[in-house]
Specification:
about 5% strand; mainly alpha; two-stranded antiparallel ribbon; 16 helices
Length: about 450
Amino acid sequence: MTTVPQLRVRPSQLLLAAVVFLLPWQARFLWGSRRLNGAFWEYGSFSLYALELVVWVCLISAFARLLATRGASAPFSWRRFFTSKGVVVAGAAGLTLLSWLSIAWSEDRALALQAAFRLTEGVALLIVLAQTARRGRALAGQAWALAAAAQGIVAAAQFFTQRIAGSVWLGVDPQLPSELGASVIELADGRFLRAYGTFPHPNILAGFLAIGVLLAGEWYVREYRSVQRILAMSCGVVAGAGLVFSLSRAGGLALVVGLAAWLLSRGTRRQTLVPPLRFSLAVGLSAATALAILWPLVATRAVGVGRLEAKSTQERRMLLREGALVARENFSIGAGIGQTTLAQYRRDPAQQGWAYQPPHNVALVVVIELAVDGVLLLLLLAAGVALRAARNGNSAGIGLLAVLAVVGWFDHYLWTLLPGILMACLALGFAAGEPPDNRG
């Protein structure tokens, strides 16, 4: 009797890799467009992303396999909650449960329901990715690196053509540097459009690319086949240069801090330090070349001089001050998940509609929506992931946590927008799992 050989990659793992690769796909059906003081209200509208359909299929497949392969349950023990895995589960489950409970006291319950559901999607992906076999997690990491390289190429093309071609199927809005609302840098000789990739903002592109560089680096150092190593190195180099074209300060800082954390966590042994150092130098050389090409823009952006840069800095500071006041007003139980901009409007209804934006700090947004309890649960989740990464020797996971910490400190999209939520949760899933095995 002949036996059928097992597939090296399961369908559920392929679906997970597809979700990761399609993260930049922003096509959505906007079924509940809403306005606030005459302007389109992004944070108050209802939509269904095409990517969510892929996420649901992936989750159904993963949990169906889990149920089909589950053996006899181990006897219950409270000790499980005091392991790093238990801390991750407690933090993730607690944060998800609190978000659903907050619907009860949210002013706009439909909006809170959408926000809670999206967070649940992200947390479910986190758990699935963390529990996936090493080979499947390696495949997902490679998918992110390849997607980052593709986005890096798109970013370069957008910058040099100074035009973003719109596409309904990709979910990309057309942008020109002359249009109001476009993210640009202003010099004496004109306005220059920052690269968006296929994301709704250059900063989100930068965060995606920073994570992609680290995952490409992990692919490179754990791969022994020359063709695969060249491909991994190429992905990192292209993504690193593409990040520069986004001209994102937070994204650039996140990449530097993430690479430093990755290198430092690998120890001082030559055989473990030389490959990641070689990769980091290649990425640094690529980014430095792009920086040299864009130097006048980079200098303006870094120093914060110029009319638009000064205005942007002032608006960020104002949002942080107003966010602190809104958080103080909702300090007891929070305004409810997804309610930040609505709470801002209730506090000051006289502003123009486009001015209602979440403060650029994830922790502050979480305090506004879920009070201090939400931040404590978020920190518990992060601590659990950090413990697992350290215990498993997952140096890339340490780097990913550093990237998320920097991005979360300077921006809000990891909590407020679906692409950011999925990005953050998948990065945490990579960090919480054992280091991937690319050689399987």
